[in-house]
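job 3f2a | input accepted
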Amino acid sequence: MKAADRTGPLVRVARRYRFSASHRLHTELLPAERNREVFGKCNNPHGHGHDYVMDVIVEGRLDPSTGRLVPLDLLDDFVRRVWLSQVDRRNLNLDLAEFAALVPTTENLAAVAARRLQEAWPHWFGGSEARLERIRIRETRNNIFEVMVPQAGQGGMETHEVIVESRRQGA
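job 3f2a | predicted structure (171 res):
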């Protein structure tokens, strides 16, 4: 169905996924002592892990024939193949190429997830009006990070400019 056939309100669908991964917050750009000051216990040389909760938020107009924005089983398969299979039970520092140059903070993790999912989106959902709107990753009960995915023509992901909202509480 063409996007022009869709009318009605703009709808957002959020789908929740879970994965576990380890990482070490460290950068070669800082001396060892400064890394310890900046990253604290997260700079442990042996790393540490998290049970992450990731929300994938999609927006668009409903398909009038199905009453759905996207088939949820297709969205689940997309997220599993493009993202979860790459990060679940992995060491982010060693197993994700992006973290050879980036510190694997959850801010950066959310940005990498958003970029990878956005790049693969047209292949999976190219005929749909639905678009990836944001990625939210919960690292701990108090640490939640969101990345807004720019719409086509807005720039952002193409230039590695990403909007990150951090909700750190009690840190």
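job 3f2a | The longest strand covers residues 10-23.
job 3f2a | closed
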